[in-house]
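Now for a specimen:

…
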Amino acid sequence: MGPGSPAAEPPADGPRRFLGDRVGSVEVLAGLLILLVVFREPVADLLSAPRWQTWTTVFVSILVQAMPFLVFGVMLSAVIAVFVPRSFWARALPRRPGLAVPLAGAAGFVLPGCECGAVPIAGSLIRRGVTPAAALAFLLAAPAINPIVLVATAVAFPGNPEMVLARGLASLVVAVLMGWLWLRLGRADWIRLPHRPDLDGLSRGAAFWAAIRHDVTHAGGFLVLGAMAAASINVLVPERWLQTLADNPVLSVLALAVLAVLLSLCSEADAFVAASLSQFSLTSRLVFLVVGPMVDLKLIAMQSGVFGRRFALRFAPATFVVAVTVAVATGAVLL
């Protein structure tokens, strides 16, 4: 591993020392199923409550929206790791990182997918030698400026076509600014990619499936945790608070920015939610659309799993501030 490249976290062996090697995911799943059978009546009564039904609906809907794109991202990540030589990235991107950042951000336009798929792809790009700043620019831009998202935004706002331009421009500017900000202030030891099995000694087919199993285990598990947190927030936040906040221009912007973080919607669906929030101004809803694909609960959880907690605790707040600022400025000019 070259100097300055992100360090890989050694595999955790604490649970193995405590539990031994005989307890794995299959045994844990079997134990949970047995508990569900034994306590099926109390569990059924609990899940029949209206709040739990709402929680379950939100949780399942987030997983259903995100999982296909997560699988797409994981498969593309495995293709990058196994079939694309490292020398390709040296030829495809400019040598100067400052120029590679906007090019990587603009590349997000050609890859339809959501933020769940972009996280493992960005991790794989860093492993293949791409400068982290460029990979992070792609991570932020791809879910917000790809054609599927822009078309969905146009459909959701048929009377306001300027929302499509505003969303695409603001999102690309945020991605590039965050890439450049990482070049100036970021440190390599903040990114700690989880240990991945050595793929060099395997055949291409075996290495491909090994990479997929690894990324699904990490990114998928944190997606579930993020979906659980988002569902809990949906149940706990009263809807009547939204109307009160919409009457204040400053609070309305902050409210929809925070709401985008908490709801954890897929970028292909968030435009329709934003369009339904008609009590808020177009600028406030633009903030919702720019912040959501870049900073939300499931993304923070997934970034923690793919890049490490130290990275997520620094990158997510900085992205939130930059996204809100750029979206408000863009809304003031275009909306």
Remarks:
- The chain is about 75% helix and 0% strand.
- Residues 101 and 134 are 4 Å apart (CA to CA).
- The first strand starts at residue 7 and ends at 9.
- The longest helix spans residues 50-83.
